[in-house]
Structure formats: structure tokens, C-alpha cells
Specification:
The complex is a heterodimer. Chain A is of the alpha+beta class. Chain A has two domains: about 140 residues, Fructose-1,6-Bisphosphatase, subunit A, domain 1 (Fructose-1,6-Bisphosphatase, Chain A, domain 1); about 110 residues, D-Maltodextrin-Binding Protein, domain 2 (3-Layer(aba) Sandwich), CATH 3.40.190.80. Chain A has seven helices and 15 strands. In chain A, strand 7 and strand 8 form a beta hairpin. The longest helix of chain A is centred in the N-terminal third of the chain and has 21 residues. Chain B folds into two domains: about 180 residues, Rossmann fold, CATH 3.40.50; about 180 residues, N-(1-d-carboxylethyl)-l-norvaline Dehydrogenase, domain 2 (Orthogonal Bundle). Chain B starts with a strand and ends with a helix. Chain B is an alpha/beta fold. An eight-stranded mixed beta sheet of chain B has the order 5-2-1-6-7-8-11-12, with helices on both faces. In chain B, strands 4-3-10-9 form a four-stranded mixed beta sheet. Classes of the chains: A alpha+beta, B alpha/beta. At the A-B interface, helix 1 and strand 10 of A face helix 14 and helix 15 of B.
Chain lengths: ~260, ~375
């Protein structure tokens, strides 16, 4: 039996160490390459931070596989268990000095999300949770704030991987519909942060199309544990569509976002 | 003369244990509001509970008749008919009852461990009827087995003092109604002499696996640290708050004596409960240490208490997640991210510089 407390501790340790490195290098970063779109970039720092995270996770238990954004799959002997790591979600924000980014780490056991951590080192916001324990931000327990759509703010995350360019207009139609029927809809540049913010009621709901699993694995768990309704589907290798919303926003967001996923 | 009617939010340590000694059951009728169903069910079935007051080496027993105990929200039917309301639910729970208090103009006496609560309630309700009260007493949920067998809700309290804002004087009772200035003096003494030292005794006690405060105080090293912390707070109150030295020294002696009261069975898990609340800025630990520093006092013993609070390891506590954080994070990250202390600030640097030494000191308590 895996000690979940230790898993959570390890994920917290790795995320905060990653955040410390990111903070120390805020002003000396140059993008290394664009990956799948102009918005999907990688820096030297992404790679360096990822190595440090992997080191900490391996020190805890070298038997777990690790799926990372930059390296891909690092195999492990223990079947059914793996870490999912995004060393820096929101790299474009980071490069441009917009403090909305962070490190996301999740642990999956037998296809079930068990542990999730998201850390924004600029704002010193540490979100963490474990199934059976709940969700916390820094020292406080958090939960979603359930308000109707017209009193809620939403966020949406289109992937840099457009998936089907001919359907792109649906994404903007969906964005507009959410925006016009609520306090607004943001495209923040960090899906992980969106979901973390849902846990403490800053957002009433989040949805995303063709997001990378490492962007949202931790956030989806945190949102669920904080009282949001969550649904996601795998639509390709490491790609997911998802909707996460407070109970009062669930029907509204599902109905609108359904068109996004067509 | 007709008995006055009290509606008491919270049938816990203060609400059940101490309130009946201030407002005697032969002069007041008791209605409770309690979130815990198990307590409600017993109170409504028994229609009474037993409160025991420690007197020298024995107990004074009081059987308290209860008219009814409501679930939160159900009390709306009687809230406008009572003579006074008392809250003793804990600062974290006060928000949940504030809305219900809008429907009454009677005095609301807040026996909460936070002097900002009455102002908070008044601003939410638009009234001026919420006032602060200080039950200067230790109550315990743990009654001796013999009495607990007869009444599962039996509870023990000290022979304490009660100070209430004179604006609520018409309620009467066995207490001192004082003006705001005197109340503030009592509160400062309670906050920094009682609250600080009491929770330090609890966190140190948890290190030696003691169950009750008096057991913790039987450990020579624990007693020395608690006494040391008390001395640091005495000095702070004299130098910084300009409280009368005689009053401060008397208060401190009284507190140390009550921590050692073997009849009280004051549970460490209750006193140490919610370490993050006690570690909040301006509160009894971090706030106390910061005040000492601004008064040129290095609060070595209070810092030891703070470190013991950081290490509090009780999986059943609402703040049990402190265990993950202290174990996962480097000291500077814990202080910066979780405690929200300013890096390079005096307290931050002091805690960091004594981190390992204090942990060693705590480890040696065992």
C-alpha cells in the first residue's frame, strides 16, 4: 500500500523546489524553441526544472513511472502508478513577466488521480490535495464557492495543438457564449492555475479542449476534491477535453462547452 | 421573579461547562444551539447535564436543566423571544451563525477567544448589541470516569472569573461588568499570559505524549519553558503595553497554578487544536513573539513553543495538514509560504537561526 501522506509530501517538496528555481531565474530566460504552435514554447528553464523534479520524485521511490512535459515517459517498475509533471505551466506568461504560471505535479494510481499539487512561486500560492484528505491553499482548507453563472467568472483553455483547424471558430463561439452569459471568461495561459483557482472560488468553472494531461492532471483532482463537478475524456495521446465547475455552473458550462468538444 | 431566557450557541467547553456558573440555572432558562448531533440528541433526551467546578481538592456539582437544544438554523423560532444570547462556538465558526443574529436586538455576549468578533457581528447585522465577554477560566471536556458514566455530557470547569462589557449589564449574573478599557486590559492579559503560555504547554505536552495539561506541567523541562515563556510575556506586557507590574505578576502566578490543576483534566488535543489559527499574525504565538521583539525582548521560550506548534502531529486535528508541510518544506519555505513571514524580517531570521537547536531541545524533552 502506497503511503499517501508521503506521496503528498513528496509532491509538495518537488513543486516548491521547482518554484524556487523558477523564481531565481525569472529575469534571465530565453525561449529555446516553439513546439507545436507559437504559443507552445519551451525554455532552458523548463528542462532544468523538470530534471530537478524528477530527481526528487525518484529519490522518494524510483519504482514509479514519470510522465513529464519535456522528457515524456520515464518508465518505472511499479505497475499502475505514475507521476505526471508539468515543470512550468504557463511558459508564455512566464517569458512575458505575467505572474500567472506554476508547477503542476499529480500522482495517478490505477487510473485514479490520488495526489495533486500546484505552486505559483511568484504569488507564493501552494495548492495541494490528496484523495481522502481535501484541498488546501498554503495553510487554509479551500472549497469551491457555488454561485450562479451570472455571478461567476470562467476560464477556458484552448490547446496550442489546434486539433482540427476547421473547428477553431467553435472555440471562439464557445468563448463568447460563456463570456456574454457570466461575469466573464478568461483565457489565462495556464490551465493548471485555472483549475487551482476554481478550488477557492475565484473561478466558477473551467473548461479546456485538447489540453495536455500534465497541464491539468493535478488541477482536475484539486477541483474535484474542493467540491467541483469534473468530467474529462482522453482524446488522444496525453490529450484531454474537460469541464470542471461548481454544481450551480455545471449545466451551463457543460451545455456551452459541449459545442467546443464537437 | 421570572427566570430570564438564554440562547447559547455552542454546547461545548465554555457554553456547557462555564456559562451555568455565571448565569445560575435557578435564575436563567437554557436553550442551546449545537452543530454536533450526538450532543443535541443527549441533551434533548436527558434534559439536563452536569457541570463540575474544581474547588481546592474537590468538585462542586451543578445539574443544569436544558429546555431544548436546536440544530443550527432551527433556533429562528425563538430567537426574538430570549433575553440574551451567548456565543461560544469558536472564532472559525462565527460566520455561520452571524446571519441568524440579524433577527434580534437583545444583548449578544461573545465568549470567543477573539476580541474582534463583536465588531464583526455588529458590522454584519447592522446592530450594536454584540459585546465582548472574557470567561477567564479553563474548562475541560473530560470528566472523571465515575461521573462520565452517569452523564456522558458531564464537564469540568475551574472556579474562574468572568468579565463582560458593561453594555450588557442588565443581563445580570455572577460576573464583573466592566468598561471597555478594563475589558481591554483583561483581554491583553488573557491573550498573552493565559493563551500564549497555555497553548505552549499543550504543544510541548504533545511532544512528550502527555494527554492533559497538568501532566505536561509535571515534566520539569516543559514547566521551565512554559515559565520562561510566561516571563517573556510578562516583560512584554509591562514594557510594551504598560500594564501594571503587580497585576501582570499576579496574573502570571495564577495562570501557572491553574495549568498544574490535577482535577481539571484539561486535554492537550483541545488546547492545541487548530495550530494555524494560533500561529496567525497578531495571535497568541507569532503575534506574541513579534510584540516581544518590538519591545527588545528575545522570546527564546515563546520561539520554542512556536516550533513545537509547527511540529504538532495530531491526525485528527482540523489543521493536521501542518504535518505534511513541516515535513516537506525547507524551514525558510515553510516560514515564507505557509506562515507568510517576511524573509529578512526579525522573526523570520530568528526562527531560522534557532531552527535546528530548538528542534534538538524539543527532541530532548522526551
Amino acid at each position: 500500500m502506497i503511503d499517501r501522506d508521503k506521496l503528498l509530501e513528496t509532491a509538495i517538496k518537488a513543486a516548491v523546489e521547482a518554484g524556487n528555481i523558477i523564481s531565481a531565474h525569472t529575469h534571465d530566460i530565453i525561449p529555446r524553441a516553439a513546439k507545436e504552435s507559437l504559443r507552445d514554447v519551451v525554455t532552458e528553464l523548463d528542462v532544468y526544472v523538470e530534471k530537478e523534479i524528477v530527481k526528487i520524485l525518484k529519490e522518494f521511490d524510483s519504482g514509479f513511472a514519470i510522465l513529464t512535459e519535456e522528457t515524456g515517459e520515464i518508465s518505472g517498475a511499479q505497475k499502475g502508478c505514475r507521476w505526471v509533471v508539468d515543470p512550468l505551466d504557463g511558459t508564455v506568461n512566464f517569458i512575458n513577466g505575467i505572474p500567472f504560471y506554476g508547477t503542476s505535479i499529480a500522482f495517478i494510481e490505477n487510473n485514479t488521480l490520488i495526489v495533486g499539487v500546484f505552486y505559483n512561486s511568484v504569488l507564493k500560492e501552494l495548492f495541494y490535495g490528496c484523495r481522502g484528505v481535501g484541498v488546501y491553499k498554503n495553510h487554509k482548507k479551500v472549497q469551491v464557492k457555488d454561485r450562479p453563472p451570472e455571478k461567476s467568472l470562467f476560464s477556458i483553455a484552448f490547446s496550442g495543438k489546434s486539433y482540427d483547424r476547421s473547428m477553431r471558430k467553435n472555440e471562439f463561439l464557445c468563448f463568447g457564449k460563456i463570456n456574454d452569459n457570466s461575469m466573464g471568461c478568461l483565457r489565462t495561459g495556464s490551465a493548471a492555475a485555472n483549475l487551482a483557482y476554481l478550488t477557492e472560488g475565484r473561478f466558477g468553472g473551467c473548461c479546456g479542449k485538447a489540453n495536455k494531461i500534465w497541464d491539468v492532471a493535478a488541477g482536475l483532482l484539486l477541483a474535484e476534491l474542493a467540491g467541483a463537478k469534473v468530467s474529462f475524456q482522453h482524446i488522444g495521446t496525453n490529450l484531454v477535453n474537460y469541464v470542471a465547475a461548481t454544481p450551480s455552473n455545471w449545466d451551463f458550462l457543460n451545455k456551452v462547452a459541449g459545442k467546443l468538444f464537437v | 421573579m421570572a427566570r430570564k431566557t438564554l440562547l447559547i450557541y455552542g454546547a461545548g467547553a465554555i457554553g456547557r461547562g462555564y456559562v451555568p456558573w455565571v448565569f445560575a440555572p435557578d435564575k436563567y432558562r437554557y436553550y442551546y444551539v449545537e452543530a454536533q448531533k450526538s450532543i443535541r440528541d443527549i441533551l434533548n433526551e436527558q434534559k439536563y447535564f452536569t457541570s463540575l467546578k474544581t474547588k481546592t481538592s474537590t468538585y462542586q456539582v451543578l445539574e443544569v436543566p436544558v429546555e431544548f437544544c436546536y440544530a443550527p438554523g432551527e433556533e429562528k423560532s425563538i430567537i426574538s423571544d430570549v433575553d440574551a444570547i451567548i456565543t461560544a462556538v469558536g472564532p472559525r465558526n462565527i460566520l455561520s451563525i452571524a446571519e441568524n443574529l440579524q433577527n434580534t436586538n437583545v444583548p449578544i455576549i461573545c465568549f470567543e477567544n477573539d476580541d474582534s468578533i463583536p465588531g464583526f457581528i455588529n458590522s454584519l447585522t447592522g446592530g450594536t448589541n454584540a459585546v465582548f465577554g472574557i470567561p477567564d477560566v479553563i474548562t475541560s471536556n473530560t470528566a472523571p470516569a465515575k461521573i462520565g458514566k452517569k452523564d456522558p455530557l458531564a464537564i469540568i470547569t475551574e472556579d474562574g472569573f468572568c468579565y463582560i462589557d458593561s453594555a450588557a449589564r442588565k443581563i445580570g449574573g455572577d460576573c464583573s461588568y466592566v468598561n471597555k478599557k478594563l475589558l481591554a486590559k483583561q483581554w491583553q492579559a488573557k491573550l498573552y499570559l493565559h493563551n500564549t503560555s497555555h497553548c505552549i504547554a499543550a504543544y510541548l505536552g504533545s511532544f512528550i505524549s502527555a494527554k492533559y495539561i497538568h501532566q505536561a506541567m509535571e515534566n520539569r523541562s516543559v514547566k521551565m519553558i512554559v515559565k520562561g515563556a510566561m516571563y517573556e510575556m510578562q516583560e512584554m506586557l509591562k514594557r510594551k503595553m504598560r500594564l501594571n507590574a503587580e497585576f501582570v505578576d499576579w496574573y502570571a502566578r495564577k495562570e501557572l497554578k491553574r495549568f498544574c490543576n490535577k482535577l481539571l483534566y484539561d486535554p492537550i488535543s483541545r488546547v492545541a487544536r487548530e495550530p494555524f489559527r494560533k500561529l496567525a499574525h497578531g495571535e497568541r504565538l507569532i503575534g506574541a513573539a513579534e510584540l516581544c521583539l518590538t519591545g527588545n525582548i528575545i522570546p527564546k521560550n515563546v520561539l520554542t513553543g512556536i516550533m513545537a506548534a509547527f511540529c504538532y502531529n495530531n491526525p485528527d486535528d482540523p489543521d493536521a495538514h501542518i504535518r505534511y508541510l513541516i515535513s516537506a518544506l525547507k524551514p525558510q519555505d515553510f516560514l515564507k509560504i505557509i506562515m507568510n513571514l517576511q524573509p529578512n524580517g526579525a522573526l523570520f531570521e530568528l526562527l531560522l537561526s534557532c531552527w535546528n537547536g530548538t528542534l534538538k531541545r524539543l527532541g530532548n524533552l522526551k
